[in-house]
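Quick one: structure tokens for this chain, please?
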Amino acid sequence: MIHRREFLKSALVAGAALPGIGSQMVETLAQAPQQPPPTPRPATSAVSKIDIHVHLGRDQNEQFNPDQLRTNVSAAAKWLVEQMDKQNIEKSLIVPVDPIMPTEIYMQAAKEIPDRLLAACSVIPRTQNPVQQLQRWHEAGARALKLQPMQYDPRDALAERLVYEAVKRGMPVLFHHTNVPRNFPEWLEHIATTFGDGQFDAVICLEGLEHLVDPVRLIGEPAGPIR
């Protein structure tokens, strides 16, 4: 299991090997005494790959059309597993985004091939009985909670309540942002510190990273594992 500080250290070392970066360090490493090659690991001990963020649908039309996906859920699940086999992926967490990618369809797909597919649930904080919805999905087998930027505001106390309820049930919480809200990094640090037993996965695309204030501090605290 990789810890945040180890992750940052390995990232810096990897960056030093890029062309034009850290050339003196690369030369120093090249001059170091050669170590014997490591003993090959048996195939049975290879690390399994798990995709923690994937959507259902054989194409974008099916992915973003709930009615079409609902009538083809079995075929979509089988197609996804075929793609996983091509990439040597053992399991995938399929992640819905209500209402356009309904949780009910994703839960059905996970039941189709339960040994390969795990389902997250999507709950909108400002909807009717969000905590009861989360509880219902959890009891039905949902393994994580997904919060999509179109669904919530980091300043909303109901969003934090959902995070609390998910952590209490041992469910990781997934975030996905393209344009990062200015208050999201501070809120992520707040919930990571407040709910120290929680597991949080923030998928942040390259756009909007100028809003990440002191990202090294954000990644470095608390000193828990990256899962």
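The CA atoms of residues 120 and 143 lie 5 Å apart.
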